[in-house]
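quick one
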Amino acid sequence: MAQDLSWIDVMDSDDLWIGEMVAVESALGPLLMINIDGTVCAYENRCPHMGGRLSDGEFANGVIVCPNHRWEFCAHSGRGINPTGQQLNPHRVRIVGGRILVASGDS
Ligand code: FES
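structure w/ FE2/S2 (inorganic) cluster:
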């Protein structure tokens, strides 16, 4: 049975510029918010390797690099690039009235 989604207001869209990656504390826990060429993505702010805080890493050319051991992830999909076979925990995103909303119940 499909689970109902609810939407959590996490930040103002003006506070996440193109090319930026920021940490947000939310009702869903720590989130990594990324603006990739105008597309906003949200992930749990936790590396699947040993729990590194991804927002302390790097984001360039669509790639997130964990600060701890340099694992790399596609910012669009959250899939591992190096190593492969890994996946960040994503959340669906909506922008309504200049606010970024993140779905609860989809991960
Ligand atoms: S904790 Fe992220 S690569 Fe090790």
